[in-house]
Amino acid sequence: MSKQIVDPIQLRHGAKLTNRLVLSPMYTFSGLEGGFVSDDTLQYYGARSQAASLLITEFHYVSSSGGPCYQTGYPVQLGIYSDDHIEGERKLATALQKDGNKAILQLHHGGIAASGRALKGEEVLAPSALDFSFLPYPVRELTDEEILEIIKDFGRAVKRAVQAG
Length: 165
What we know:
Blueprint: E1 9-10, E2 16-17, E3 22-23, H1 39-47, E4 54-61, E5 78-79, H2 86-97, E6 102-108, H3 115-119, E7 124-126, E8 139-141, H4 144-164
Helix pairs in contact: 1-2, 2-4
């Protein structure tokens, strides 16, 4: 007998989903300056909470050195690099899970795509010293110490996400 998309499923780690529908991560362009959750962010995810039993957020930058990745010239990417983000992320978690859903927060470091830093006159960091001449701004190779710090930033972002719910 084939499984139906509306059948419940239990994931390997034990989480139970009421169906097999997943909202994939999509960039909403709804963040505020500094990577904060906006009312538009909450409305977007809240309106989709009944669409699937697992919702995956758009990418959140984990380090101030890793974002924002500007689109359309505005700082619209969400971040979770500071404890100041927890309150908004808590509201986002509530919107995502209001119908009994599970949620996944997508974490990321923008690296050479963190063009928002260039627009503010800050260094844009890259994993290696390649020729990025196609970019309209200079890029600097990360040091070993900076790489280790970014790894720690991912861990700190996970802790913030857990605190937010």
